[in-house]
């Protein structure tokens, strides 16, 4: 439990009406929830348990850390199983199968709830911003207690208090969110690294993507608030940060006093204690020479850039509403590699977008061979109801898309393996992140370029950066040797 948050929560007088101002309003409801948890635990003769499952991207993972922080402050005990008194799903809706996964899991929860009348089930995240999803849950999953979305996640304590007091389903969804409330508890997965939201929402409206509809329009946080948060993280032992946004390259455009993402990075680099700076995701249409220059000069920004391609065909890119073409993307790659020859470049690629021909697919393969990505996340196109692409004609047959996907994957893996092998024998800094899951005598960490390294070590080395010789490349990870001779 964080002493500062505990002090602010305990200072609230819950005999009076809730404050109107944030974040004090949420501290008030956290204190109310504390009282409820204590009472329910006494009734049950055991601690009140909670389970939190996260689906989706790193922004969802960061949101879940905030939910977990609130759960810790109110006294719930986390459990790895869903046999809990409070079960929360933080959902993703980027692909149709993500929705189906949640529906499948809900079926099991209904059986659990019949055994435990104290149980409460909460659903939040991107999937809940889809009206059709909420209607389906209303009709077919009436045992769910609480539904909230992406814009009001900071209200978790307030909504949870209402759910405990009510016997009916509570739905609190906003179409848009303008308020950003960050001064709330957070339970980080790692003590030494953390994600930091610098902006929310997306203005790009790629024709295949549901995100702008469920995350809303772009909203940038004030730079001073970001700097203060990172300063506090550094004081708490964080050495690596990941700056998060749907399109970090467009950061600052909604501020009263605009500030570019490159300029924000320069400010963050001055924060003492932070040794590594990462960010994602970057949209090719907004990647500036200013940003490339800041990355090149920086001693803290990691030599890794995730730059989604999606397709190598200019014709398909236009249909996707990506607002760049093949030539522009390859020019960007050339400028990046010229400025930072050691840069690791990763990407996203969609196969089987409506209207994609064999010629279009070969354009993608051509970019893959020219850009020589260090790794790529490859996806079969998934039709998302509510997006322009879902209504497009010429949907590519599944068997055709799958055959192309397999060809692409082989090429991506071949190039990635060649690039990984080229680092064998070099000694490079590795941030030790955890005990290896298969071998307790090894640690698992990451290079500056985000590659995984397993090397000999002990738990007291976690959270620090070590010089490790990359003794052997095993395709997508390395076996390392410590420079002090322990191997």
Describe this structure in words.
This protein is an alpha/beta fold and 487 residues long. The protein is built from 14 helices and 19 strands. β4, α5 and β5 (146-148) form a beta-alpha-beta unit. The longest helix has 24 residues, at 398-421. The radius of gyration is 24 Å and the shape is globular.
Detail the poorly predicted runs: none
Spatial extent as radius of gyration: 24 Å
Give the strand line-up of the largest sheet. Answer: 2-1-3-4-5-6
Number of H- or I-type helical stretches: 14
Task: Chart the SSEs and their pairings.
Blueprint: H1 3-10, H2 24-44, E1 49-54, H3 58-74, E2 77-78, E3 86-91, H4 96-115, E4 120-125, H5 131-140, E5 146-148, H6 156-165, E6 170-172, E7 193-197, E8 199-200, H7 211-215, E9 219-220, H8 223-235, E10 240-244, H9 261-269, E11 276-280, H10 289-297, E12 304-306, H11 314-320, H12 326-339, E13 344-351, H13 358-371, E14 375-380, H14 398-421, E15 427-435, E16 442-447, E17 452-456, E18 465-473, E19 477-482
Parallel strand pairs: 1-2, 1-3, 3-4, 4-5, 5-6, 7-10, 10-11, 12-13, 13-14, 17-19
Antiparallel strand pairs: 8-9, 15-16, 15-18, 16-17, 18-19
Helix pairs in contact: 1-2, 2-6, 9-10, 12-13, 13-14
């Amino acid at each position: 439990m964080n002493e500062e948050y505990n002090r602010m929560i305990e200072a609230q007088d819950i005999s009076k009406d809730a404050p109107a101002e944030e974040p004090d309003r949420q501290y008030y409801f956290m204190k109310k929830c504390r009282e409820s948890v204590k009472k329910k635990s006494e009734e049950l003769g055991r601690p009140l348990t909670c389970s939190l499952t996260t689906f989706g991207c790193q922004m969802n993972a960061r949101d879940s850390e905030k939910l977990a922080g609130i759960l810790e402050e109110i006294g719930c005990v986390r459990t790895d199983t869903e046999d809990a008194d409070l079960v929360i799903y933080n959902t993703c809706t980027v692909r149709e199968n993500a929705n189906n996964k949640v529906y499948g899991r809900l079926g099991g929860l209904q059986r659990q709830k019949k055994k435990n009348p104290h149980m409460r089930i909460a659903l939040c995240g991107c999937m809940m911003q889809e009206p059709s999803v909420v209607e389906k849950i209303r009709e077919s999953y009436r045992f769910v207690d609480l539904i909230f979305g992406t814009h009001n996640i900071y209200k978790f304590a307030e909504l949870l208090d209402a759910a405990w007091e009510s016997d009916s389903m509570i739905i609190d969804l906003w179409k848009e969110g303008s308020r950003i409330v960050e001064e709330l508890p957070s339970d980080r997965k790692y003590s030494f690294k953390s994600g930091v939201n610098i902006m929310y929402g997306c203005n790009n409206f790629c024709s295949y993507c549901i995100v702008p509809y469920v995350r809303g329009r772009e909203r940038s946080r004030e730079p001073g608030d970001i700097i203060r948060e990172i300063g506090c993280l550094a004081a708490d032992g964080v050495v690596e940060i990941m700056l998060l946004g749907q399109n970090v390259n467009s950061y600052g455009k909604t501020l009263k006093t605009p500030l570019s993402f490159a300029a924000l990075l320069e400010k963050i680099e001055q924060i003492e204690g932070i040794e590594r700076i990462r960010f994602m995701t970057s949209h090719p249409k907004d990647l500036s020479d200013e940003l490339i220059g800041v990355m090149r000069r920086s001693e803290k920004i990691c030599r890794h850039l995730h730059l989604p391609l999606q397709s190598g065909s200019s014709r398909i890119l236009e249909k996707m509403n990506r607002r760049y073409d093949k030539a522009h993307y390859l020019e960007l790659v050339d400028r990046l590699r010229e400025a930072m020859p050691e840069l690791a470049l990763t990407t996203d690629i969609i196969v089987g977008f409506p209207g994609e021909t064999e010629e279009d697919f070969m354009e993608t393969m051509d970019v893959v061979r020219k850009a020589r990505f260090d790794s790529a996340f490859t996806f079969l196109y998934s039709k998302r109801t509510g997006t322009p692409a879902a209504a497009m004609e010429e949907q590519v047959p599944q068997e055709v898309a799958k055959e192309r996907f397999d060809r692409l994957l082989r090429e991506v893996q071949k190039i990635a393996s060649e690039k990984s092998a080229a680092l064998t024998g070099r000694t490079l800094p590795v941030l030790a992140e955890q005990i290896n899951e298969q071998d307790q005598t090894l640690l698992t960490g990451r290079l500056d370029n985000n590659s995984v390294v397993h090397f000999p070590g002990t738990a007291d080395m976690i959270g620090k950066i070590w010089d490790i010789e990359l003794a052997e490349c095993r395709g997508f990870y390395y076996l390392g040797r410590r420079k002090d001779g322990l191997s």
